[in-house]
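Appendix C reproduces, verbatim, an entry submitted by the partner laboratory led by Prof. M.T., so that reviewers can inspect both the input and the predicted structure.
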Amino acid sequence: MRLCRKHLLRCVSVPLLVLVVACTAKDSARQNADPCILVSEHQKFLVGDPDCLRKFPQKRMAGLWELGYEHSVFYENAAFLPKPSDEDVWLEAEPYARWKAYGVNFDGKTHIYRIEFIGTNPDVPGFYGHAGMYKRGALLLKIIQATELR
C-alpha cells in the first residue's frame, strides 16, 4: 500500500501492462508449452503464481519482511527497511494462517519481521503480487525463524 501511494502510475499501469502483454502476444503466449511463461514479441515474463514459483530451486534466505494489507515485500539481507523501489520483491506466503505458529500476524496492519526461511526466488522478470505490481517475486515455503520488529 505504501508503494501504491508513492507510485500511483505504476500501480495502475503494471496490471494494465499484464493485460496488454497477454492480449498482444499474438499466438505465442497461447502456444507456449509452459503455462508459467507469458511471451510477448520481445520478452518472456514469469507468471508469479505459487505453482510457477515452486518450480525453481529452493534456497535459504534471510532479511526483512514487510507484511500488511495487500502488501508482502521481502528485502533480502537487509538490516533496515529501505525505501520502496522497482526492485522490491513480492513475498508470496499465502495462506497466512499457517505462519501464525511462527509469530507472524496478518491482521491487515503493517508488520515488519526479521525472517529466515526456505523458499524460491527466481531471477526472472514477471508479474508478482497484488495486481501483478511487482516485477520480482519469491515464495515462502518454510519459516526457520521470524521475529516481529514492529
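Helices lie at 2-6, 8-24, 28-31, 50-53. Additional entries are available on request from the coordinating office.
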